[in-house]
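FYI - complex with zinc ion, inputs then prediction.
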Amino acid sequence: MSDLKNKRIITVATTGAWPTKENTPYVPIEPAEIAEEVYNCWKEGAAVAHIHCRDDRGRAAMVFEKFEETVRLIREKKDCDIILNLTTSGGVNLREEDRIRPFCELAPEMASFDCGTMNWQHTTVFENNPKFLEKLAALMNEKGVKPEIEVFDPGMIYNAAYLAKKGLLKPPFHFQFCMGVAGGIRASVKNLVFMKETMEEVAPGSTWSAFGVGAGAMEIMYAAVAMGGNIRVGMEDNVYYRKGVLAESNMQLVAQARRIIEEYGCSVATPAEAREILGLKRA
Ligand code: ZN
């Protein structure tokens, strides 16, 4: 086994639910655009692709056919072994059955698992009620899909611990600390340390990754690399490359993450190494 201690996994979230072509002309929206972007991000060093799709009007949606096409187009690129991680939120106020269907039918290795309900951006409710989470966890177990436990505040780490105690979430756990979303925890080093320590207390032996939305993005990226964590980048979380300058592609954001990891003295995990780190069964 290779030495994985100094490897850092880059997850790319190319699209997300929010940025539109009006916000940035560079965000990939159509399945073909997303697949091409994922492929090129893999070439830059991304080991995991967190996938969202949009409807025909570019709005956040869980349209199964769009996921099917996107996944098919990525899998057609035979040299690309990137790990697929499908969203199970897709946005807010979407139907539970639509949120569940893509990971159930398309057999990704991972899917996001948003471990609690929150007031989203002071505008609406991002609902992940206890019954839904139990159903989601049971289905992920049944399908052999590893949950990426997304936590937007420390309370959600305790929700994960509760589901683990009930046997619905099974170790080894992988957490994604989503920081700086209004309604959740602010993106700061102090808060990242607290999130990591809380996770270690309630779910020892877990792996983790982090990102900050907006102004806290760089702070979280540098701190996560230094603290032994993995990182997520992409237009789902930040459309800017630096203050006031739009990123012209997701590849640019992955390349930046790669440079930061390498300058720190670590190296970027390949998808095969990421599978080992995350304990994924399928290769
Ligand atoms: Zn997402």
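Residues 2-278 form a domain with the TIM Barrel fold (CATH 3.20.20.70). The pocket of zinc ion is lined by residues 13, 16, 50, 52, 87, 112, 236 (CB under 6 Å).
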